[in-house]
Every structure is written in structure tokens, then in C-alpha cells.
UniProtKB/TrEMBL annotation:
The active site is at 244. The keyword Nucleus does not apply. One of its GO terms (molecular function) is oxidoreductase activity, acting on the aldehyde or oxo group of donors, NAD or NADP as acceptor. SUPFAM superfamilies: ALDH-like. Keywords: Oxidoreductase. This is Betaine-aldehyde dehydrogenase. Gene3D superfamilies: Aldehyde Dehydrogenase, Chain A, domain 1, Aldehyde Dehydrogenase, Chain A, domain 2. Belongs to the aldehyde dehydrogenase family. Residues 7-470 form the Aldehyde dehydrogenase domain.
Amino acid sequence: MLIGGEWIAGSGAAFTSVNPATGEVLAELREASEADVDAAVQAAHQAFVSPAWGGLLPAARAKLLLRVADLLEEHADEIARLETQDQGQPLNVSAGFSVPNAVEHFRYYAGWVTKITGVTAPLSVPGVDYRTTREPLGVCGLITPWNFPLMILVWKLAPALATGNTVVIKPAEQTPLSTLRLAELIEQAGVPAGVVNVVTGGPEAGKALVSHPLVKKISFTGSTAVGREIGAECGRTLKKVSLELGGKAPSIIAADADIDAAVQGNLLGGLLNSGQVCAAYTRFYVDAKRHDEFAEKLAGAAGSLRLGNGLDPEVHLGPLVSAEQVEQTARYVALGEDEGAELLTGGSRPDGDLAGGFFYEPTVFAGVKQDMRIAREEIFGPVLSVMPYDDPEELVLLANDSEYGLAAAVWSRDIGTANRLARQVKAGTVWINMMQGLDAAAAWGGMKSSGLGREMGWEAIEAYTEVKSIWTSLT
């Protein structure tokens, strides 16, 4: 763990980080005790009020973020391999998407540091000058998931530092290694001790961080169930909170859609990182006349994908992150079959050379009904459900008939139809005729049970600052 500029083992029980492709133990770490978490928060608090960080001029803070970006880029190959070994995502994802996206975020928010402004406003009070400023919150707790450990951390970390906050990071216990390596680079960049702290461990460490009285904000990405608990605790203690939670993204394939393009885009959008994506396209609403064509082409494409160790550049899909995730996927596949969905491809674990890892075949169901659990519950695995519809007027009702509202997709050759559907679907992000896209400048977050608040763009600057009003008498 990194606490106040010192690397310590921590005082809790030991746990291991495992390569999900092989079952090999990569590292042994320690659970953060309540005392460890307290020490990290105290260190972050002291750094926040110190001149070394709190008194740093904006241009100097921007320069530090740019230096972190440069170091991350210089070590990109090393960190991508580490991410692949610890999480399982293929190198074309870690090296081609995750690490470059993290670098982009540091540079983007470095640009914001010198541009965070308040406003002046005319008041109906005579003899008064009025203006606002944006100020940092203080110590922020960043709790990150295991599906994109580095990238999602940086979505939180870059704006938190750009706005002058200090942080305590609690990475997912399954995938802590890229976070610890990034913390080393942050030290190397010259960020003052205590500004960035890392504690390792599972739920108990997270609970200690959420409940600590000196923590002013929690940013959490993870399951809806845990997000509800965190939101409730932050409500009781009046902490600011951002929650990016589960998803069950609908993908609407209109009758006039280019089926081949839709198959390709939905294959990528549904099976990226073996389906371990909160915005994965997982329920496909296809015009009944084209349902069979779409389902058969999707199943054929999914069945042709190569599974294997993500370090192999020829691999399309890596393993799931853990044995628990494999078991969960297998349970949902069994439910789908029991409830009457037609299994077109996949539906089992591979054998042979892959038997020692946490692999599961990409799985496609056809003829799925709206009330089936595979159509309603987040699986977080490579399971795709194709659902026919007869009446275009019912499409929006079907797509919105979910507790989730993180993301959605629309496929149509008619730009009017596509945009009408995009406006009506209740989701934080809608992509039209494309797989998922992300950019540091584009706001990201969910509606309904998919979360609270937004990350990325100017919205993240707002999330890590609070507004102060200043009145000055001119008489």
C-alpha cells in the first residue's frame, strides 16, 4: 500500500492476485485494516492543507498531470501486459484501448486545470459585487472495479487531482496491480507525498473508506447493490457521491438496419472484454421478420472468435476475471435454457489447454422473451440475448422496461428514426450505428439504477468541486 509517500505491507490478512487465464498467483497483498485506511485518509488530509499541494499554482499542477501522462505513455507496453495478466483482457484491449484512454484523460484534465472559473452575476442588491469560485472538496475516496482497473481509476483520479483534491484509492481486490504501478509513476512524476494514497483489500476496506469522517466525496464504480449501500451511507454523512453502476444495455435493430453492420457492431459491443463491460450490448431487439437472420449471423460470428490467454495477439476473447464470474455466467446460461430460450452457440466452458483458466464460450440465445432473467438481469459475461418484436411502436417500451439506464444502441438507416429512438430511450448514453465509444470530453454515467452523477468532460470538474459565493460591498 502507498500511504503518505511510504510503501507499507499493511496489517490485515494476506490475499492473492491471480492471472485468470492460467490460475497462476501473480502477487500476494494485504487487506487494509481500519487503521491502515485511517492512516491513508489522514495522510491525504494533511497533504490537502499543505502548501506543497494546496498552494501549488494551477500551471504547476497541470505540469504534474502532463508528466504523469508522459510516464504512463512511456511505460504503456509494460502496464498493458500487467493489466492483461491481472485482469485477463486481451492485449489489443489493454494496449489499444485501456492504457491510451488513461493517458488521454490525464492530458485532457491537465488542460482544464488553468481554466476552472467561476461566474459574475448582476444582483438586485445595490452597491454589491458578486462572484463565484470553484474550490476542491478535500479528501476523495476512489473505489474502482475489476473490469477496467487502470482506465476507470483514471476517469476518477485525473479530474480529482486537476481540481486540487487529494485521494485514497481502493482498487478491486481481484485486480490491484496496475493501480499500484500507476502510483509508483505518480511518485516518480513528483506529485507530493500524501496526495495519492492506495489501500488494498476487499469490502471491509471499502466500508472503512466510505464511513471515514474526513472523506468528503466517494466515487464508486461497481454493482448496483453495493452502490445503493454506499449511496445510503453517504446520504447519512452528507458526503458527495458519484455512482457508476450496473447496466443491461438494449440494442435496437430497426427493420431497415444494415444487418451485417449491426451484427459486427453488436458482436464487438456485446463481447468486448468477454462481456465484462457495464455498457455491454446484451439484449437485442430485432424486427421479427429479420430476427432469425440476425441471430444466426450473430451466433456464427460469436462462435468463430478465438478464446485464449490475452497475451497471445491472435486471441479475440480472454478469460473472465474469476471462478466466481464463470459460475455466475453458467448459472444464467442454465436459466436461459430452462426458461425456453434457444441456445444457438456456446453455453459451456472450453476444455483442453484452456481448462486451467476462467474461460467461458461466447453464448448467443435466440427467441428470448422480455420476462426471462437473461433479458432482465446483469450477467457480466459473454451472453447475448436476441429478442424479436412485431410492433415498432412497442420498441421504446421494451427497451425502457428495465431497472437499468446506463447505455443503449440504435441501428437504422433512417436518421430520423434513429434519433427519435435515441431521444426516447432512458439511458445516460446512446450510440447510433456504432459500438461503444468513449472520450475524455464526453460525459459518462447512468440513469435509474445505473447510478448518480457523471464522469468525464466538464461534468467531472463539477463533481470534484463546490461553488462558493463571494459578496463584496462597493460602498
